[in-house]
Design a protein that fits this description.
By secondary structure, the chain is α+β, with helices and mostly antiparallel strands. Helix content is 38%, strand content 14%. The chain has 3 domains: 44 residues, no CATH class; 49 residues; 35 residues. It is built from 6 helices and 3 strands. Strands 1-2-3 form a 3-stranded antiparallel β-sheet, with no helix packed on it. Helix 1 packs across helix 3, helix 2 crosses helix 3 and helix 5 crosses helix 6. The radius of gyration is 35 Å and the shape is elongated. The mean pLDDT is 87.
Length: 179
Amino acid sequence: MARVVITAVVVEGRSKSEVARDYGMSRLWVRRLVQRYLAEGEAAFEPRSRRPRSNPRRVVTEQVEEAIVGLRKQLSDQGLDAGADTIRSHLLRRGPAAPSAATIWRTLSRRGFISPQPHKRPRSSWRRFEAESPNECWQADVTHWPLAGGAEVEILNVIDDHSRLFVNSTARPVFKAGD
């Protein structure tokens, strides 16, 4: 779109107001595009990044970030723990203000020192184990249960793995492999 607007103003000689009205954009934007073309030439046609130059909410300054990275390298070279909590405790010894362990972790991740590891497996990776046909496979589980007189028994529960049907339940003082 920038190429069309700039061509309309520079080559065709149309007014900026007329081009802005015809293409549905502000006159100020048309003026900026033309000024950029006159200053930079063909580079004005390329799209620009819309990323802000700075982030006012950014917690860590460049000096603190360099201190975090330096401590990470120093502790790693010494064979010591170089995690976010350890780096934070070292920074607190240097001065009263230190970023949180989560901020240090994000800084180390952004700089490539930490490879992300998911804390939980995604649900898509869960595979339910289930037998193909009834009585093909059973699941057995022993539960310890205290009785009213103080004695304990073991309860063996058996479930069919295909239908989840409760097949058997037996209670004994102690179960052995032969049972």
